[in-house]
Write a sequence for this structure.
């Protein structure tokens, strides 16, 4: 096997194994994918992360071709995201507790904290409910992710995108943290929201921060 592909397969397994310690998912819920050769490598369906090996990872082409056994049941939205979003290299999907709690209330995360800008805008949307594993869910997820790198999925969980698997994982952790903070704030009141100008200022600062030009 190509050494780069083998490394990506191992990285996928490592990413999923960190879901537990990062409090992102328990059991076999959650999955991850990474762009590879006109398609994506994705974790298999219903397999415990501790027994998963690189050979269990499935490759799915953007044309629908496949190499491997049973991909995650959510392969459709992973495929759509990586096909339609050339800026994205990796996708993490989890049922993390606080993000999922908000998603069950169908409440998006507004600009209650400046870190919301980390997902690319002044809110993190909640995609409408659709049955797991369906093309309808893929449509809803794509729409909720417009100009964003993360979204909640109603009565389901969250999805986070990244320039690599580590970035997607870190964003999923951030979304879970924001969801937890927002739930906590809302438990005793209505949080004050930052306005569009304040969030634009944050977004601008993030650009310089990433470029290392922030003084
Ligand atoms: Zn799911």
């Amino acid at each position: 096997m190509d050494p780069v592909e083998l490394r990506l397969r191992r990285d996928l397994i490592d990413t999923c194994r960190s879901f537990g310690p990062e409090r992102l998912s328990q059991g076999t819920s959650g999955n991850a994918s990474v762009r590879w050769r006109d398609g994506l490598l994705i974790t298999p369906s219903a397999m415990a992360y501790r027994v998963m090996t690189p050979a269990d990872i499935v490759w799915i082409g953007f044309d629908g071709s496949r190499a491997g056994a049973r991909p995650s049941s959510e392969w459709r939205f992973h495929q759509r995201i990586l096909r339609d979003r050339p800026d994205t290299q990796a996708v993490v999907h989890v049922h993390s507790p606080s993000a999922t709690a908000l998603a069950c209330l169908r409440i998006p995360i507004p600009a209650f904290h400046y870190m919301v800008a980390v997902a690319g805008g002044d809110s993190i949307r909640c995609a409408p409910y659709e049955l797991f594993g369906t093309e309808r869910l893929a449509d809803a997820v794509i729409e909720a992710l417009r100009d964003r790198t993360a979204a909640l999925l109603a009565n389901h969980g969250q999805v986070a995108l990244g320039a690599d698997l580590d970035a997607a994982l870190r964003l999923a952790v951030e979304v879970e943290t924001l969801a937890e903070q927002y739930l906590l704030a809302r438990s005793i009141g209505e949080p004050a929201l930052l306005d569009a100008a304040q969030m634009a200022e944050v977004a601008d600062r993030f650009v310089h921060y990433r470029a290392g030009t922030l003084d």
